[in-house]
Amino acid sequence: MSMTLSYDRLSEEEKHRRFLDRIEKGEKIEADDWMPDDYRQTLIKLISMHGISEIMGALPEKEWVPKAPSLRRKLGIMAKVQDEMGHGQLLLRVAEDLMKPYGKTREEIMQDLFRGDLKFHNVFHMPAPTWGDAGLIGWLVDGAAIITQTNMLKASYGPYARALKRICAEEVFHAQHGEAIILALAEGTDAQRAMIQDAIDRWWESLLMFFGPATSTTTGTSKQDITIKYKIRTKTNEQLRQDFLDKYIPRVLSLGLTIPDETLRYDKTEEKWVYKQPDWSEFKNIVRNNGPKSKDRLNLRINAYENNAWVREALSPDEAVV
Amino acid sequence: MTNEGRNFYQEFEVFSSKTDGGQVQHQFSLLAPNEEIALVMAQENFMRREPAADIWVVKRSHVRKMTQEEKESLQRLDNKEYRTTKGYGYLRKKWREYEQNILDEKEIMSWGEDKQK
User: Fold this and answer.
1) Are A52 and A88 a contacting pair, CB within 8 Å?
2) How confident is residue B1, by pLDDT bands cut at 50, 70 and 90?
3) Closest CA to A43 of A2, A80, A97
4) CATH of the domain at A49
5) By percentage, how much of chain A surpasses pLDDT 90?
């Protein structure tokens, strides 16, 4: 051990330089490794938000478990809801290990969520009134999530990259589950086709918002610069949104469905989609828990937490000692 | 509810093997109040699809991991040829002079097999 330099003896600048060196070489940073504070804080914010969004995202879909139109669909959507909760568990573990030096635990994550300090994804503040919405969530909301998550598969933070690898493998099932529902409706009656068109019209703005504003000037904050600098991801919000439009617009149109934006077009010279900007002030409003379903969903989570308090008490290791 | 959440959860590391006697691989970590629930959670969280023949859960506090500094000490120096067959490669040529083959790894590891006629 005498051959290596003691990390503790290095100056902060030297530690920082070595850290950047490791990232540059493609090495993975692990939970107990030295890392700069802004790296840790960016990861905590990103991953706790991602983890809690998986859990909050299961809520609009869970509504459709008892109402799914067939046993097969019921089993499919149940499996998906279970996956989302599992993804939440994985991601919260990654966030919790990062929070450890600050003395924070899952308890604080939950309390932050209940207080409104920890945000969840804009799409999960929206209603899912029809079976068309259930299909659309699997198809396009998960599609959007796959675009952002696959962009971080090689993230410099090892535990997050490994969690994402597991998650993305299951997202393939989610995407096909959504497509199966949508294709069945698209090949069905006029009423069924109208149901998916309604769902697209309802979700379009939320889907554009999903990737976040192009620059921080739109909403005041954006983590994209620091996440790119630290090689947590490689593409900007706008690049991810363009990727999504590239992949999904042709599929939506191929089913004879329309996009609720008359200005939408592909600019061949600029090689990008030109589209009507969503209302970014509304986006800010929604993620501050003022969306149409924000309060209901938060209450569902709070009730589940409080109703299960007795289970935690009964199983508490403190109780066992007494 | 003040202390409840903090003391309820303990950290467990989860390991599993895909087949009987197969290599045990680290999967991920989870929070659970005790070993029994950790096992249930491990199955729920990590084995929903992939095959599993066995699952182990280990309290994280029982795992002594290496520090970043210790991990760096694992890097091998590239001057250990005397420990490996690489440092004795010239023997092949030598034995050839005596019209003999080298007893390399492939040859030696094959000696335990039953000869088939």
Assistant:
1) yes
2) very low
3) A97
4) 1.20.1260.10
5) 87
User: Which residues of chain A make contact with B49, given a CB cutoff of 8 A?
Assistant: 170
In a domain, A247, yes or no: yes
Q: Is residue A21 part of a domain?
A: no
Q: Which residues of B touch A97 (CB under 8 A)?
A: 29
User: What is the average per-residue pLDDT within B2-16?
Assistant: 78
State residue B86's pLDDT score: 84
Domain count, chain A: 1
Give yes or no for residue A3 having a pLDDT over 50.
Answer: no
Q: Does A316 lie at the interface with B, CB-CB under 8 angstroms?
A: yes
**Mean per-residue pLDDT for A213-240?**
87
Domain boundaries in chain B?
9-62, 80-111
Full domain range(s) for residue A283: 34-211+224-298
pLDDT for A322 beyond 60: no
CATH architecture, range B9-62: Roll (3.10)
Which ipTM value was assigned to this complex?
Answer: 0.87
d(CA A98, CA A232): 15
User: Is B42 near chain A, with CB under 8 Å?
Assistant: no
Which of A311, A312, A313 is the best mutation test for B, with the most CBs of B within 10 A? A312
Q: Which of A100, A318, A322 to mutate to test the interface with B (most CBs of B within 10 A)?
A: A318
User: A26 lies in a domain?
Assistant: no
Can you give the pTM of this predicted structure? 0.89
* Per-residue tokens: A9: 């003896």
Q: Which candidate from A4, A83, A313 shows the least CB-CB separation from B69?
A: A4
* Residue A320 placed within a domain: no
- H-run or E-run covering A147: helix A142-150
pLDDT at position A224 over 80: yes
Shortest alpha-carbon distance between residue A279 and chain B (Å): 38
Distance from CA of A230 to the nearest CA of B (A): 19
Distance of residue A56 Cα from the nearest chain B Cα, in angstroms: 17
